[in-house]
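I can't quite decide. Please look over this sequence plus structure tokens:

:::
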Amino acid sequence: MSFSPPPRKRRKEARPSELTAAALGLFVEKGFAATRLEDIAARAGVSKGTLYLYFDSKEALFKAVIQEGIIPVVAENEAIAAQHAGSAFDLLEKLLAHWWEKIGQNELAGIPKLMVAEARNFPEVAQYYYENVIQRVHALIGSTLESGMATGEFRRMDVKTTIDVIIAPILMLVIWRFSMACCQSGEGDSQLYLRIHMDLLRQGLCTTQV
């Protein structure tokens, strides 16, 4: 009686989320330009042909990373703002804390550094990020500032410039983490950094201190 070994099982085809996770890791580690589709396929454990079943270009993969990882957080913050009933400063604090919890502490925090470094070389990718992330974030913070100014909680300031001033320290924190932090001995205290940032915002924005 002859014995036939059981047929080998093929690896289950990768799901799109596995491919975007592999892409995110490589984009953050190597940059957009230096990441090849074959590298992404290899990290996900599939063939390049399998990758092409889902994504026809590196740009499409990047957009999927943003759609899957960052845009939902922006939408969550928009929902937080829509349901908020407290002070404008409390809302601002909630929005920044939620962004840090969902994005600032994982690989998605490497995307801003990637965009700063490569936006001019890949304008289509940069424009997509600008329209779907930056503009929505700016609109949300801007409406929070305008609400606070309208009630007298915040001092009157140029809203557009104030948005940039609020975001800049957090942007610098994540860019530093994925760049010059490698030269430091030990990690900085991000929670202390954020507490100081919020304290300075309170002192600068609010007409009365609490």
